[in-house]
Every structure is written in C-alpha cells, then in structure tokens.
Specification:
about 300 residues, alpha/beta, Arc Repressor Mutant, subunit A, D-Maltodextrin-Binding Protein, domain 2, 3 domains, five-stranded mixed β-sheet, 11 helices, 12 strands, about 45% helix, about 20% strand, DNA-binding, WH_DNA-bd_sf, DNA binding, LysR_HTH_N
Length: about 300
C-alpha cells in the first residue's frame, strides 16, 4: 500500500533536482528556497528509508534507489498532468488535445505538410504546437507537458527516459546571400570562411557538436568574427543585409534556398549529417490522435529529399 506521507511535492522535488542536476537549479524551477527543498527531499528519504541522492562538486547524483524512484515518479507526474488536462478538455467540449514540440528545422520544413495531412485525418483534434531549443522541448516531453517532440537526436544526457525513432538524416549547411563573394570563389576551401563574419550554433544547440567536429576535421581554429546564434528570424534578416555566413540545419533554410533568397556554399559538410526523428515517452500509451499524427509524419517524411 502507498505510504500516504508521500505527497505531490516530494515527486516534483525529486524530478526537478534530477532534471536540473543541482538543488539551486531545482529551487529556481520550483520557486522554493534551498532549505525548503532540502527539507522536502529529507522527508521523502526518511519515508522511503533510503538515500536518493548524493552531492559532490559535480552536482547532485542519484543513488541506485534514486534512479528507481525517479523513473516511476516521472511516470506518475506525467499521468497526473494528463488526467488534469483530460478533465479540462472535457469541460471545454470534449475535443482530444495533442501537444507537439518541433525543433526549428522540422517546424519550417516538415510541420506545415504534416499538420495539413493530420487535420484531414483527425479534424476534431485540437493541436497545440510548440517550437524551441532541444533542451527546452525534451524537458517538457520528460515532464509530460508535451506528447511528442520532433527533431535531432540530442546528447545522451538529454535523452533520459525518451524513445527516439529516426525518420531521416539531415545535414548542416553554410549559407550566405546569393551574391556573397564566396559563392563564385574558385576552389573554395574551408579556410576561406575565416575571413568572414560567421553565425555559429551556440552551446546547447543540437548541431553544435557536429559543426565543432567538422571544424576540427578541417583544421579550422576559432572564427575571429563570430556570433553564436540559431535564431531563424535573426539569421535570415542578418544574412541578407551583410557578408555573414551561417552554419544552420538544412531544414531551417530549405525554403530560402529553394526560393534563391539564400544559397549554400559548395562545401563538403557530410560529417554534420545526423538523425532527425520522433521523440516520445516509452511508458505512455499513444492516443488515437498521436497515432494518426505519427502516420501523417511518416508519410510526409518519406517524401523529403535526402541530404
């Protein structure tokens, strides 16, 4: 029988600490003071009769008991959130709601076509779309705020408790305006990029380690004139008014390349190709709406040109 001393705040405390990797980060997320959060964690450990976490200079680490408890605490919170949402949806008229997150390359290139097909398959489903960074969207998926996320596979530490199904491969391109001096540069080499302003993926961006790896393989040192940015709105506008070049997922700028608003430099960037796919929580049963959305997604993904 479940010990009635275990409360919702205990589950939220453990999942937030594990997600943030520190008490300080969890306090900010939960809007609690550190003594209050420490007290909540201590209460739970005393109730369970086991230490769930240890602290060291690297942050907070889960004990084996903590790993077990975290898995089921996360599932419980996700189920509870879905239950609360389900009641709200019934009160609003009974329409099923599907919450989908998409990284920018998928949001621009694939999502409009997927949504059009999905709405034909399930016209009564209320679709809630979110875009954002890989870290933000996967955290919302892990917490149960989102039902699924579309995008590149992230680093192992960001994919805990997430199932990934590959749909296609996508590479990074280096783009500039169509009349950029390097477009017609004979014998273009990676070292030629060092003379120009560069928009570079920031820390935490899914493509950052791929572009870093490509630069190392080409013998490129740090770019002397660099802006760290993956903002599609800024990048498109800035490139058209400057001599800057932009390392970005091909899907983000595919429409601009097709419309000849931007052009991809003829560089071999095959090393940056990575899997793009569907991320879900494996312990969550797929609703009818999610099944239909995944069907529409796979159909449209198959029609994409391969990088």
């Amino acid at each position: 029988m479940l010990d009635r001393r275990i409360k919702l705040r205990h589950l939220e405390a453990v999942t937030a600490i594990a997600r943030q990797g520190s008490l300080k980060g969890a306090c900010a997320e939960l809007h609690l003071t550190q003594p209050a959060l420490s007290k909540t964690l201590k209460e739970l450990e005393q109730t369970l009769g086991a230490a769930l976490m240890t602290r060291d200079r690297g942050g907070v680490r889960l004990t084996p008991e903590g790993e077990v408890f975290l898995e089921f605490a996360g599932q419980s919170l996700a189920a509870l959130r879905r239950g609360v949402s389900g009641v709200a949806e019934l009160r609003e008229g009974g329409a099923e709601v599907l919450r989908v997150g998409a990284l920018p390359s998928v949001a621009v290139r694939l999502m409009p076509r997927v949504v059009t097909r999905f709405r034909a398959l399930s016209p009564t489903t209320r679709l809630v779309l979110r875009d954002g960074t890989h870290g933000a969207l996967t955290r919302e998926l892990q917490s149960g705020t989102l039902d699924l996320v579309l995008g590149r596979m992230g680093a192992p530490e960001t994919m805990a408790g997430i199932s990934f199904t590959q749909l296609y491969q996508e590479g990074v391109v280096c783009v500039g305006r169509v009349d950029h001096p390097l477009v017609a540069h004979p014998g273009l080499a990676p070292q030629d990029l060092l003379d120009w302003p560069i928009l570079y993926p920031p820390e935490g961006a899914a493509i950052r380690p791929l572009v870093d790896r490509w630069c190392v393989a080409q013998g490129l040192g740090p770019f002397p004139d660099r802006i760290d940015c993956v903002s599609g709105a800024f990048g498109r506008r800035f490139l058209r008014a400057s001599d800057a070049l932009w390392f970005i997922s091909e899907g983000v700028v595919a429409p601009e390349i097709e419309d000849r608003a931007l052009t991809a430099l003829p560089l071999d960037l095959d090393l940056t190709a990575g899997p793009v796919g569907l991320m879900t929580r494996p312990e969550t049963a797929a609703s009818r709406s999610r099944q239909l959305f995944e069907r529409a997604l796979r159909h449209e993904a198959q029609s994409l040109p391969r990088s």
